[in-house]
Amino acid sequence: MVVIASRRLWSDVADTEPEQQSSEHQLSSELLNPLRVVTPPVPAGTPITEFWPVSVDVDWIETPYVDNKPDPAVLADADVYIGTDFTAEMGRAAKSLKAILIAAAGYDRIEPDAVPKGVIVANSYHHEAPIAEWVMAVAVALDHQLIASDRTFRDGDWSRWPSRYGSYRELYGRTFGIIGFGAIGKRVARLAKAYDMKVLAAGRRPATNEMVIADGVEYGSGPKAVDRILREADFVVISTPLNDVTRGLIGERELGLMRRDAYLINPARGHIVDEKALYDALARNSIAGAAIDTWYEYPLGNDDSPRPSKYPFWELENIIMTPHHSGATLGTRNRRTTTVAANIDRLSRGEPLENVLDDISTI
After folding, report:
1. 73 class by beta-carbon count within 10 Å (0-12 exposed, 13-18 middle, 19+ buried)
2. What backbone phi and psi angles, to 5 degrees, belong to 33?
C-alpha cells in the first residue's frame, strides 16, 4: 500500500484559526479519516513514515517534548499520543484521545488516574537483548576490575599488574542471581549460562517444571526466593518493573544479606533499590561493588548537569555508572517504532492492539 501521510508541526496547527482547524479535520474525516498522531520530531533527514513505518494514512503532528512531554494543548484534537509520560494536565486537554502508545517498556511515568476514559494504553519491549549484553559486560568489567586497571595503567601505574596485584576472578562457575524473570531476566539467564554459570531466578509467580528445565535455572517465587538469591549469588541483577510492590524492594536489610564479595547490577529502575542503603553499602564496602544504569534524579528541561543522586556515588571506586543507556540501541529503537506503527495500523483498522496494558487502559 502506498502511504499518503499528512505531516504537520504543532506550530502550524497553533497558528491556524479555529474555524479553519475545524473544517480541515472534518474534511479529513469525510475523505480519508486519518488518525491524528502526536509524536516528537523524528531525526533530521528521516521521512516520518520511515521512522514510524505505518501502512495507513496518518495525520502526523510533530512537536517538541520538554521533559518527555509535549505542550498539553497539542493533544486537544489528537487520536494517538506517542510518549512515555502522561500527566493529569495532559489528560484534561486530550478531548479525542483513543490510544497512548509507549515506545518503551516501562510505564511508571503514565499517571493512571490521568488516562481519559476510553483510552487504550500499550507499550513495547524489544530491549532485552542489549540490556542483557550490558549486564554481562559490566559483570565482566567489575569482576576483572577493568575500569580500575585502565584508569591506573593510563597514569603509568603498574599496581594492577597481576605480578603486583595478584590474580583476578572469573565468571566461570560462579552464581548469577536474577530478581524479576521476564524477558530481560530470561535473556540474562541465557547469556550467564553461556559463561557456564549457575543461575538462580526469582519472580512473582510459580514456574512450571517445563519452563525451569528449558531455561536451565533454579527458580523460585516470592520473598524467600529473593532472599536466597541475595545470600548466594555472586552477581545480583534487578530486572523487575517499578511499581508499588517493587519500590524500595532492595533496602538495607536486603543489601545486608549479600556477601561482601558480591555485586549488584541494576538496569531496571533506580527506585527499586533504596538510594541511601545502596550508597552506604558501597561506601562501607559491605558489598564488593555495583553497576547502575537507572537513577534517582534525571535532567529537567535543557539542563544536562544535575547529579543522578543526592549521594556522591561518583566519588566511589567500586561502582560503574552509566546514564540509562543499557537498552538504548538502534536495534531497540527500530523494533519499538515498528511495534508502535503496527499498533497505529491496527487502531486505524479497528483491530485489537498488541501489548495492551490492562491495568491502566480505560476502555
Report:
1. middle
2. 50, 50
CA distance 111 to 171: 41
Beta strands in the chain (DSSP E): 6-9, 35-39, 58-62, 80-82, 99-101, 120-122, 175-179, 198-203, 218-221, 235-238, 263-266, 289-292, 319-321
Tell me the C-alpha distance between 129 and 133, whole Å.
Answer: 6
The two beta strands, 6-9 and 35-39, are: unpaired
C-alpha cell at 37: 498522531
Of 143, 203, 211, 133, nearest to 174 by C-alpha is 143
Which domains are delineated in the chain? 6-126+330-349 (3.40.50.720), 128-321 (3.40.50.720)
- The answer for residues whose C-beta is within 8 angstroms of residue 196's C-beta and 6 or more apart is 172, 173
Residue 59 has pLDDT above 80, yes or no: yes
Q: What is the pLDDT of residues 61-120, one digit of tens each?
A: 999 999 999 999 999 999 999 999 999 999 999 999 999 999 998 899 999 999 999 999
Q: What is the pTM of this model?
A: 0.84
